[in-house]
Amino acid sequence: AASKGAMVSMTKSIARGYASEGILCFGVAPGFTVSEMTAEYLQGRGGAQILADIPLGRVASTDEVGEVIRWLSTEAPASGTGSVVDVNGASYVR
Q: What global pTM score does this model have?
């Protein structure tokens, strides 16, 4: 949580400091994400507890996190600079 808080602050500081130069900065705050490294854990004894904390009922995929990054890099409106997008199924752990 502390490291994500630091990244959120840094994102906002960069956005504030460089927006006038046309440099945008966005953050992505993924929650638990399923990948080759985590799939076995999710299917094992730790998965039920993780899923119980996610209102969406599932964890994000790496493709979903990548899609958010792609969107922020190519389509997000400039006025959103400094924003942090949570990709966590509404679990909001920071």
A: 0.85
